[in-house]
Amino acid sequence: METTLVLLKPSTISRGLSGAVLDRFCKKGLIIAGVKMIQLTPEILSEHYAHLKDKPFFPILCESMMRTPIIALALRGVDAVEVVRAMTGVTNCRKAQPGTIRGDFGMSGQENIIHTSDSVESAAIEINRFFKPDEIFDYTPVTLPAIYGQDEI
Ligand code: IDP
Ligand code: MG
Question: What per-residue confidence (pLDDT) applies to 140?
Answer without folding.
Answer: 96
